[in-house]
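Duplicate of #3305? Posting structure anyway:
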């Protein structure tokens, strides 16, 4: 989709004062540019190119950070996004713009690794966070994965299912790779237990046809019908933490509506001019 997905993201402007880490300055800059920042207040900032207050960065269009660390020990030290400290500005509300918090597989708070420092190695830099859109660069896109799926509409023909024996019903239930169906041992019936897990593979349909071919009186019947519910789908968004999923959806819809309004106004204006 071309819907603009807006968020803050870091852009380094060559302000690396000292870097004796294993990575060159260009690598450090690139890795800093991919660190997501909490961006719920992004609409309260203007784009750098549209800022009327400055030409090189101010509190209205950017936020500055400092990263300064030296390894005085023997062990290797990880330099992470947790070491980024915001340079205080005249807008106290900007303090909540900070790197997204991440947790390790051990459920421990861990930042994004930028580089590593050996004994007596040091890194000292300042960087600026500016507002941008995913159309310019993917680093400004707050979503990692966005997809949608149809809502399954599953219908079992109970009159046909009732004529099958226990083994055939179990065979039908086990044909589904995602375990959509369940066999009720008490009522000796097949139930639709997890319809949303259906992936439209039609394995149950094929198995049903195979089972019915064993019965002369059921050859022309169907055991199950798989379809999708009209005008319904499941929309899933995985974010990088800069914006919440609901913020991405709401803001994207708002931006899309604004773009449609611009197109409609242009069409109306062109129609008026052509009628003159």
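Output from current build:
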């Amino acid at each position: 989709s071309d819907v603009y997905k807006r968020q803050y993201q870091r852009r380094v402007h060559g302000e690396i004062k000292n870097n004796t880490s294993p990575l060159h300055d260009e690598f450090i800059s690139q890795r800093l540019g991919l660190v997501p920042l909490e961006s719920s207040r992004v609409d309260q900032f203007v784009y750098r190119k549209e800022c009327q207050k400055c030409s090189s960065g101010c509190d209205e269009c950017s936020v500055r950070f400092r990263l300064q660390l030296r390894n005085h020990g023997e062990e290797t030290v990880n330099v992470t996004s947790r070491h980024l400290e915001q340079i205080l500005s005249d807008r106290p509300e900007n303090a909540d713009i900070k790197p997204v918090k991440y947790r390790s597989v051990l459920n421990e708070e861990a930042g994004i690794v930028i580089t590593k420092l050996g004994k007596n190695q040091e890194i000292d830099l300042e960087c600026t966070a500016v507002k941008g859109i995913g159309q310019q660069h993917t680093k400004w896109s707050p979503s990692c994965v966005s997809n949608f799926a149809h809502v399954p509409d599953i219908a079992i023909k109970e009159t046909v299912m009732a004529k099958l024996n226990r083994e055939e019903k179990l065979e039908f239930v086990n044909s589904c790779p995602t375990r959509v169906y369940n066999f009720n041992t008490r009522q000796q019936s097949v139930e639709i237990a997890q319809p949303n897990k259906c992936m439209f593979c039609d394995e149950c349909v094929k198995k049903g046809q195979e089972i019915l071919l064993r019965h002369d009186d059921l050859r022309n019947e169907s055991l199950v019908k798989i379809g999708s519910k009209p005008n319904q789908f499941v929309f899933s968004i995985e974010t990088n933490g800069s914006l919440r999923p609901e913020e991405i959806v709401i803001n994207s819809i708002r931006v899309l509506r604004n773009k449609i309004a611009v197109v409609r106004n242009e069409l109306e204006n062109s129609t008026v001019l052509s009628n003159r």
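Confirmed duplicate; merging threads. The mean pLDDT is 88. The longest strand covers residues 224-239.
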